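Before going further, learn to read the protein records used in this course. The integers have meaning only within a learned vocabulary of local backbone shapes. To see the layout at work, look at the sequence and tokens printed below.
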Amino acid sequence: MSDSTEPVRTGQDFERTLDRSEAKVAEFETNRHSPLDRVQHILHDNPTLVPVIVLAISLIAFGLIAGGKFFSAFNLSLILQQVSIIGILAAAQSMIIITAGIDLSVAAIMVLMSVIMGNLAVYMGVPSGIAILVGFAGGAAAGMFNGLLITKVKLPPFITTLGTWSIFYALLLWLSGAQSIRGTDIDEHAPFLKFFGNTIDLAGARITFGSLLMVIVFVVLWYMLNKTPWGRHVYAIGDDKEAAELSGIRTDRVLISVYMLAGFVCAVAAWASIGRVGSISPQSFYEGNLQSITAVVIGGISLFGGRGSIMGALFGALIVGVFQSGLRMAGVDVLWQVFAIGWLIIIAVAIDQWIRRVSA
């Protein structure tokens, strides 16, 4: 036998490899954000900050242009009155847009419910309280109808509510006979329908109950969306519906409840609109759908869903009111007021797209 000696191993192969490897600790380059990047992140984390800043700048600018009369208590309270109904509709619209949907029928639901309330209370002798409750139930039913078509029939929200807008509008024309219910008839038979038209005079300001109602609606809905599990589910669906379903959220049920609540809020707006206008007209608030969407978009709520605060819609409605009042006081023609609001919408959407790049 040959005396062959095997080489002596001083360690395992991986140990010898490790001895020859680089011993430095891994280092990662830290990206330094520019001031603009930091602003972008701040606005992404606080979406309501944009409309608040725009509202403050608008107030200062129009105060300088229109003079001291712009900041008079009467003028500021008048702005609140003018945006109260659209503000309530914007609150309903906000909930739906947060779910990445849209509702083009909110104004039609509101006017339809006001016609139903008026017909019952003025022409049929039904007590005003019962007529109002019927209107509330009708608004919730109309919203549920939208929700069922979207969740069960799987129709896109845009097409669904575009169709139901036509249906509800045709119904209100049929029920009203295309005729208005005069304010004198309401005063005689159902004055309670005008409850939210009552005013409180305070230090030169004339604050209507409808303006206070708008603020209350926003506060209640803000609490529901930010402090309850239901509200967290609404945001989750808007951010990613499939992920929400995988996490156990019953998305269809939540969506139906959102549309029902939005319909109910539209019915509340219907009652308030009677006091605001002083009569019931089937032609009133014809552009309410677009005006409510305008307030929501300017208020920083993303049209893509899942981001934004409902309080932003309140600030958005106030911004529109401030612009209209300020431009009117400055002697600007109505045509150019509409022109300015159009640019506001475009700029608001552009800012939203820029802010969303943080999460991209």
Summary: Residues 50-58+73-355 form a domain with the ABC transporter involved in vitamin B12 uptake, BtuC fold (CATH 1.10.3470). The beta strands are 199-202, 205-208.
